[in-house]
Please model this.
Amino acid sequence: MASAARALLQLLLLLLLPPRTPSPVAAGNPHDCDVPLASSLPRSSFSSSSELSSSHGPGFARLNRRDGAGGWTPLVSNKYQWLQIDLGERAEVTAVATQGRYGSSDWVTSYLLMFSDAGRNWKQHRPEDGVWGFAGNTNADSVVHYRLRPPFQARFLRFLPLSWSPRGRIGMRIEVYGCAYRSEVAYFDGQSTLLYRADKQSIRPIQDIISLKFKTLKNNGVLLHIGDTQYGHHMTLELIQGKLVFYLNSGSANMPPTDAHRALALGSLLDDEHWHSVTLERRHAHVNLTLDGRAHRLQAEGGTSYLDLNPEISFGGIPTSGGSLTFARENFHGCLENIYYNGVDIIELAKKHEPQTLILGNMSFWCPQPQTVPVTFLSSESYLALPGHAGKDTIAVTFQFRTWSKAGHLLFCDLWRGSGSFLLFLEDGKLKLSLFQPGQSWKDVTAGAGLSDGQWHSVSLSARWGRLSVAVDGHGATRPLETVRMEPGDTLYFGSCPHNSSGCEGPQGGFQGCLRLISIGDTAVDPISVQQGELGSFSDLQMDTCGITDRCLPSYCEHGGECSQSWDSFSCDCEGTGYTGETCHSPLYEWSCEAHKHRGRPSGLYYIDADGSGPLGPFLVYCNMTDTAWMVAQHSGPDTVTVPAGPRGPARPTAFTYAASPGQLRAAMRLAQSCEQSLALRCGPRVALQAPDGPSLDWWTGRSNETQASGGGSLPGAHTCACGLAGSCVDSQYYCSCHPDRDEWTSDTIVLSRKEHLPVAQVVMTDTGQPRPDAVYTLGPLLCQGDKSFWNSASFNTETSYLHFPTLHGELTADVSFFFKTTVSSGVFMEDLGITDFIRIELRAPTEVTFSFDVGNGPREVTVQSPAPFNDGRWHHVRAERNVKAASLRVDQLPQKTQPAPADGHVRLQLSSQLFVGGTAGRQRGFLGCIRSLRLNGMALDLEDRATVTPGVEPGCAGHCASYGHLCRHGGLCREQRRGVACDCSFSAYGGPFCSQEISAYFETGSSMTYNFQEHHSLSENSSRPSSLHRDVTLSGETVTLSFWTTRTPSLLLYVSSFFEEYLSVILADNGSLQVRYKLDRHGDPDAFNFDFKNMADGHLHHVKISREGATVVVEVNQSPRRQVILSSGTKFNAVKTLMLGKVSGARGLDPDSRRAALRGFRGCLSAVRFGPAAPLQALSRAGVSVRGQVGLAAGCAARARAPRPGGGAGRPGPAEEGQPLRPASRRDSAVVGGVIAVVIFILLCISAVVIRIYRQSKICKESEPKGPRESTFTDRFYSIKGFSSRSFVVREGKTAWHTIPYTTATQRNRSTRWHRCGLWRMLEPVAPDPRELWAPESGPESTWPRQPLDPESGCIATLLLRCCGAQEFKEPSPLREDGLGKIASFDRQPGRSSLLLLISGIQHGVSGFRPHYHQSTEGSCD
Model:
């Protein structure tokens, strides 16, 4: 019984396993298909275009034979000669071999190999993609053997010599290797179908395999269809426009329209009357489709896990009767060969009329041979000259053509006896016929469009009395003519014309493509007769073959670039891809924010491409340029998530997605030095996110989809908040501040910093367990700092030292980029070798960098020469690229050098050795110096890690300021860092990472600051700057710069005093004009100069520069011309003491105007203030500066100044700063583009609505304010609000206008409640870019607005001022109001404190947006 069961199991296994498809090779061992086929053939099987003599005939062309003259030599050695073999029947050909003619100087150095089934309609075999021919011999006797990949089946082979021995003639001996080939064929006439029905009772195999070959002259037709009417599963293979289209439907009972389920389109130009192989493999719901050796895989849609076809297979068409499926499809017209279904020979079954098969229509079991003879026009100089019908009064020509070229001459003919000429040509893919007659204008007829699509198109040309017509694919155009006799000349020229002819020249050049079925009048042209010299003449043609090639299949255009082609080349359209170059390989954008930063670019939105030329595309991030560059990647999840109220129940997940893909973010994080993402929690009373010693009630998942506890930086699985790690939780028995024993609001800030888990994809929290939602959380953006690869470097100390890395893989495309610096004159940067191929980049001379390589076409070089030497000890950037079209090299910003690849040459770079960096395999000509940031095909190599274990090479490289010091602007000093540079802005009037951000301060009325030169000298006496100022210094000259805006006159802009009562004052007079006053003699009167540029107290930003050299003073204001004045009071400024800004009192010796301006002070914004080396605003936060009143650092005066009026004399709309953030590139995704347009339109509409609302409310406010003295019950009140957020963002600057919020509020004072209804709320935004300062409004006591220090834990980022316009006191409070702008209400009942709550939503600011703010009480009375 057990044995029977075992036998049954074996039988089932045999039935389930698919039977092996037998090889069509029948002779001998199917795996030993390398038998010589030509050596045993009779001489009659060899033929040729010509022979030098009978002893040089083709019959003597057997390999290693010496009879006759020792091989074949044609009568004339030119490119139209050929040697042909007839194998007697179709055979599998796997290899060929060649020799020269024995004992001679005759051999072939390169040749083409053609094959055919019937000796007609030849097809070229290409040894590899892009290679035109085979390399031949270099002498007469050595044998050159080529294995054919892939092999082919043919009866006839033809060798066409392309080049030969320069000292002799064409000479060949050949051999062909292969084996016999078994074939079963069937011919379908376009009206027939072959059906095969599988046995429904048998056990279905777990997979299906269908294989066949086809050839046809028709570009449309169904090859096979598999359908299951019960379940609606079906698959279809169909030729459409010469491409093989595969449809897959896994569940619909009704076949969709033709274009609806086009799952996959393969191949091109398949209607060439040559055999093409197709294999279709189905395993479960996966389908593998292979066409001519190129495999493609796809899966059934809809989640189907098993595709049960239970097939009825139809070949050649889809039957329209006997089933519920009806299709309007064109049947296949051509031959099918060796049709196998799971090892079953379908054609053999059909021959035997087995019941599984059914033939519908007239199908025969033979394959007719083609009767058409195509002609290939290889170049723009190719032509075919045929005799015309001279003396006849009509011209009638028909033919078919196919091409990729959009322009070219197709046909030219002179009319009889010089009466004119006509020209038929392609122009922009349209066919145009032009008739020229002496004394008359050209007469044109245009037909067709899009004719450069590679398809066959039929043309009919007719010219006779009174009519000129041309038709394309049956659609014609006709132009009436005057009664003119149309008599053709002696010759019709197809393509170009001979060089000695005239009249057919034109900008389009000759036609490149294929012609067939040429007829002149009623006579068909036989191209074979032309080839044999019996008819007409020709040049640069290939007869009996159409050599058209689809150069976009496969497409070498990367990253979604669109491929287009002409006859002999292709091009890539890289628009909108984010890449550039011949094949869209080179990235347009930097790979990190660090790289953007060191191009001198400020903070802003930038595209980064983390893997460079790799498959991942660029994505948009915010780069925050601080001392280190931070990448900020925002998520698209909710800003704030409220944890639902109610009893604890199931977990509630919130998903967070990002604009960048997971792969893009992984690549960016891989480069970064560190990454983090913050999760801010705010919990109400008795809300717990974790129980003591219990499980966490909240968790999150990252990119790996693993569950992580909410713990910043903790080990996976540790249920600890950030305060638990730091030991700073409000209750030490808990690991989080949120726990049930607290009766107040608490917060937890969690910083997630393990890169392998980031970014956060989902946050999960349970219900609060409270009757109301008293817990919220906010997930911040992904933040990544720095770039490990940018400063990754190695120092090479000996010529024999090098670093080695794995082989460079870049067969079709490879790129290398790096920085180098050296003081030597030459050296090899990198090298990689193959058997014959190689790639090398080197410093060949002090001013030359060379990129050399060989991919099989011989060594090639690209060299960049510089007018300045490269061995100057500075960093220089090199980028080299090689692809199938060209090789390019660029160094720094020098012009890129490019060398095109040879046409139809080898394209694959085959390397096998290790990659040597800093030297060569032979340890010669090594590089001495530093190499950093080495990237191969977009991937960074870790030079430092490899250098630590390599003798003669050290990790790191010092000395970056020589190359990057120019980034430190406005007098900033470059300081060397271990990895990079930093700018010291201590002696600059500017700040920021590159000293490019102006340091500004806002001065309120009565405020001032005093800068003491002596104190700052003592603080910086160790400084290397020789210009530090102190009491003993006498200045013979100085330079003063400042920028300002104000609306008040008179104003003191700057005052510099000395110990000897000398001074410099810069003031605005009553009329707003600029005045400069120097007093350099304590006993004399000051020199006063009035520069009447215009009223400069206009609220616009103005720039002033004062330069003094001795008695000469030059003043520059904005873009106005420089003005020069001469001092009379002296030439020396002795013992400078202090520099004062704002209000000055008690100064001795001032002239009346300066004193008046000094007492008045300055109210407005000052920036970029500098006196010689002193930058007083830079020292505002340090010792040695005395501040009175309210002086607050601002983000920049320009942002708050009024926009300059057009044509303003002194107003200067400064030039655009270098390196501004790039605008986002146009993307291909139309949905994204449409979304951006919609958002812009929406924002514009919102802005318009807000402006209208502001205008109307301002009008109401003005009307509501009292005209006379205010009563106690009707007054204006001022409130301050600080904004808080757990997510950082940038506050928009540049507006000083009032915004309106009409609401009701309440204040408390001395335990009594006063309710006020405001006629209008007015908000000034932002009043203090620096949150440490709280300013007074335009009126009200200054003491009401004390300074308040910034609490770094609170996240305070902005201060807002509210003015209650026309407040009226009333007794009963109004109900709270809420709308899209926000809500204002009292919340604090403590005495002596005024309080206000402002929640604003829907107003976007900066990058991250304006988030809902938590409340903050403000000390002091609001009365």
